[in-house]
Amino acid sequence: MTAADPRGGAPAAPGSLADRQARLVAALVAGAAPPPGFAPAPLAAARAALLRKRAGEVARHWPLLAAGLGARWSATFAEWAADRPTGGGLRDGWDLARTLRTRGTLPPLGARELAVREALFRYDGQRPPRRRRLPAVTTLAIQLAARLRLVKGRAPF
Amino acid sequence: MTGPDGVGIGWRPEIAGFVAELPGLRFVEVIAEAVPVAGPPPDGLTELRERGVAVVPHGVRLSLGGAEPVEPARVAHLAAVADLVAAPLVSEHIAFVRAGGLEAGHLLPLPRTREAVDVVCANVARAQAELPVPLALEPIAALFDWPDDELDEAAFLTEILDRTGALLLLDIANVYANARNRGTDPVALLDGLPLERIAYLHIAGGAEQGGFYHDTHTDPVPAAVLDLLAELCSRHRPPAVLLERDGHYPPAADLRAELDAVAHAAGFPVVT
């Protein structure tokens, strides 16, 4: 069996460097079994380090989501992301926020951040978000309303 | 255009104000993928260029060690950034960052095999054909090794440098991290590398976590890494050394003290 290529390209020949690199990345970011021969502890440390770095990137795109989760941010993100390859910090945070909303565990700050994003952008969960075609006055109103709600909610800034 | 010279620092938007006020600064690095090439460079970089500070674009997503050919659009972007900032050279890593359509999100090590040497050399040649300036290659910090290494690290790196004619960007903190995590002697690696090929050095902070030393770029530079810098410079002092800091930025006074400590260890004038 060779590592699947999500782009739909031809799978790399078994045992080739391309195949082995694909298996290694899948083990590190997509929850696949580690390729044979690698020492488990260093690989686990690398997987954890990648998740920490990714959590930091998502928090930069979604500061209120991360702040709303507070001390639970790192564990919540790691649990959600462990077997999900990254779509970039913006989309990862968006997908996580929607998952938490479905579970009913999205904190209020994160809910406000998500609401503003969803009002301004169209995101189908598959392709990069695209800005909605709204009259400039509507865009401004959404941003102003969000700011007012944040002030009332004592956002941490 | 002069090349890297003395003590530099990685230019990041978060510390642009701090960097702008370093009176003796002669060079900075900028993450190439963070620079849009459609418009002018970020204001802070333009001001540094006007002061005669060299700007070196540092690529992090070319994936020169990927088994697939390097993507031409990524090379074209790096070349365009080099033109935009009139760079004396550019740098990238001996690593891969994606495979099988998945992004790893960080630099991953290659097996030290002859097959991997061939892959890297072919991709470096593809990049060099399109770049307007010389390319320096940086060995990475790796938390794990592949099970089938044929070459030791010095032989692996030297072979790549010899075959590509590329310059060496040696990260002294990576040398420290790898040696500490593998239980090997960092000085032995320095003895095996072509130190005269170093265009400049990197240095950065890190921290111990879970039994491994992590090259975080968000912690202070440990004294042991400064000692290794001094050890290297006592053998052969490269033209320049650059401090990389990528988050958890300390107060300006602390960052200045760290730059001074780097200058002192390497034997360069202070830039603060």
From TrEMBL, chain A:
<dbReference type="Pfam" id="PF26136">
    <property type="entry name" value="SCO6045_C"/>
</dbReference>
<feature type="domain" description="SCO6045-like C-terminal">
    <location>
        <begin position="18"/>
        <end position="101"/>
    </location>
</feature>
<dbReference type="InterPro" id="IPR058711">
    <property type="entry name" value="SCO6045-like_C"/>
</dbReference>
<protein>
    <recommendedName>
        <fullName>SCO6045-like C-terminal domain-containing protein</fullName>
    </recommendedName>
</protein>
Automatic annotation (TrEMBL), chain B:
<dbReference type="InterPro" id="IPR036237">
    <property type="entry name" value="Xyl_isomerase-like_sf"/>
</dbReference>
<protein>
    <recommendedName>
        <fullName>DUF692 domain-containing protein</fullName>
    </recommendedName>
</protein>
<dbReference type="Pfam" id="PF05114">
    <property type="entry name" value="MbnB_TglH_ChrH"/>
</dbReference>
<dbReference type="InterPro" id="IPR007801">
    <property type="entry name" value="MbnB/TglH/ChrH"/>
</dbReference>
